[in-house]
């Protein structure tokens, strides 16, 4: 299958939300799964835009990479990359941010009083956007009730598909992944495989969907 002539948008890695000049709020993510999906889409002849949070990974061949740090920057980069035929939002975006201090918070002053503010929900924003890609794919990293929570997320975010995985083990940062693909038609349980293999399988399904 080929994605020639299609624009595929992928997000990968974490976001870092600054607390002060030396501390951040972040989710754990190596970026490997997202980068593997971008690479597989490029191999399938798509034009690929990869919006990457702070990771130390090599840009896949044939992929246009946009580096960001915060959730706000990632959201802006995603919408600036539109239109796209498909968006695969793999990034582990931090759910919360704070108003950062301009100077380092001193440990000797005791725990800081932080006021948490929700970050932008990129998947939900895309799901409701007039520029919504034809195929919108989100990821759900869960530690319990994995499939049930992913089914609910697909509906609440307006996504076409959710790729769900159990991160109670060492998936975050590891080289293997076992996922469930949630669509309007039901749930597909995929066997554990290397992240590159998961990526190729997903890209094959995307190419079939986009025709």
Summarize the model shown.
It is built from 5 helices and 14 strands. The protein has 211 residues and is an alpha/beta fold.
Overall description:
The chain is an alpha/beta fold and 211 residues long. It has five helices and 14 strands. The strands form four sheets. The chain has an eight-stranded mixed sheet, with helices on both faces. Strands 2-3 form a two-stranded antiparallel sheet. The termini are close together. The mean pLDDT is 94.
Between the first and last Cα atoms, what is the distance in angstroms?
9 Å
- Unreliable spans: none
Category by helix and strand content: alpha/beta
| Helical content (DSSP H or I, runs of 4+) | 25-40%
| Overall outline | globular
Radius of gyration: 17 Å
Strand order in the largest sheet? 5-4-1-6-9-10-12-13
On the 0 to 100 scale, the average pLDDT is 94
Biggest sheet architecture: 8 strands, mixed
SSE succession: EEEHEEHEEEHEHEEEEEH
Number of E-type strands: 14
Oligomer: single chain
Count helical runs: 5
Fraction of residues in β-strands: 25-35%
Q: Which properties best describe this structure?
A:
211 residues; alpha/beta; 8-stranded mixed sheet; 27% helix
Topology:
Layout: E1 7-12, E2 16-18, E3 24-26, H1 32-43, E4 47-52, E5 63-67, H2 71-81, E6 86-89, E7 96-97, E8 117-118, H3 122-128, E9 135-142, H4 146-157, E10 161-166, E11 176-177, E12 179-183, E13 186-189, E14 193-194, H5 195-210
Parallel strand pairs: 1-4, 1-6, 4-5, 6-9, 9-10
Antiparallel strand pairs: 2-3, 7-8, 10-12, 11-14, 12-13
